[in-house]
Amino acid sequence: TITRPTNGAITGSNINCGSAATATDCDETYSTNPTITLTATANPGYVFGEWTNCTPIADNPLECQITIDGAQTVSASFIPTYLLTITRPNRGTISGNGINCGSSNTAIDCSETYLANQIITLTAAPDIGYVLNSWGNCTAIENTPQQCQIAMTAMQNVSANFTPISLSVSMSIDGEGHVSTTPAGINCGINSNSCSATYPINSTIELTATPGATATFAGWDGVSCPDDANPCTLTLTTTAAIIARFAPVPYTLTVVSTGSGYITSDPAGINCGGEFNDCSKTYDANTAVTLTATPTATATFTGWSGGGCSGTDNCTVTLDAAKNVTA
């Protein structure tokens, strides 16, 4: 007697017993002690499991033999199988247990059939410049996040999300000025505090330096730009810490000494009158220069004019533009 299977068939020696409507020959009477060979055939979506009360043939386990030395009952189990499908990634590869699915032309094995409840381990390998961000429908293994496991309790679909490696760019401002980037991210300097951003590795970004009203762009540190080009184009292969340097705009202070006397300055640079001819000096923007008038023994200092100076005391001139002063 054959226990009728629901997901396959058992055949042999007038036996045709299975799940099909016509496979109902599940009993047969034999003369004493014959050896009967039976064959198991699984339905689609199933595989043969094992025989019960029938000895498998060594080189073909789908067949078994039994000696009829009395009433016998034979059964066979059939195990369901499920299809695992990998969503093909375009920036890496997923592999494991017959799967090799990825961005290269040879990594095209993106589906495989497994036994029900089988635990499948998959490994993600990102392309150069990319990193595994997350698994889809697969549980990452603790401490080994590039691997995941999934139980084949039904048809399954697994994906992996690969994202570009991000690199940080930080900007510092030395002086009066402002730096922005294209693509946007950094907007650092005057009235702006967005001085760091992240970009995908191998991104090309453009740095643009804008000096303040009384400054001029003086160059970059931390980035290689020929002749301190502005804008500066940078390809990111590593993190970058950049300094944009701005120098004050220089303004010229010119003095004229009339009569008998001398004009000197603090900071030094002007020494004008008599035999001294240092009557102009260039200073950084917004420098405060104090002028002192010293008459000769036979003269009297009568006062200042120009550059905001007046009276007879020392005069302090703030160089927010070129200025002329007469003593």
Quaternary organisation of the protein chains? single chain
Q: Compute the CA-based radius of gyration.
A: 45 Å
Report the principal-axis shape: rod-shaped
The major β-sheet equals: 6 strands, antiparallel
Strand tally is: 34
Could you list the spans in which at least 5 consecutive residues all have pLDDT below 50? none
Range of helix content: under 10%
Please give the alpha-carbon distance between the first and last residues: 131 Å
InterPro entries: Bacterial_rp_domain
Protein name: Bacterial repeat domain-containing protein
Domain Bacterial repeat: 16-78, 106-165, 193-249, 273-327
Structure description:
- There is one protein chain.
- The chain is mostly beta strands.
- The chain has 4 domains: about 10-80, no CATH class; about 85-165, no CATH class; about 165-250, Ubiquitin-like (UB roll); about 250-325.
- It has strands at about 10, 15-20, 25, 35-40, 45-50, 55, 60-65, 75-85, 90-95, 100, 110, 110-115, 120-125, 130-135, 140, 145-150, 155-165, 165-175, 175-180, 185-190, 190-195, 195-200, 205-210, 215-220, 230-235, 240-250, 250-255, 260-265, 270-275, 275-280, 280-285, 290-295, 315-320, 325.
- The strands form 7 sheets. It has a 6-stranded antiparallel β-sheet, with no helix packed on it.
- A hairpin with a 2-residue loop joins strand 6 (about 55) and strand 7.
- It starts with 7 loop residues before the first strand and ends with a strand.
- The mean pLDDT is about 95.
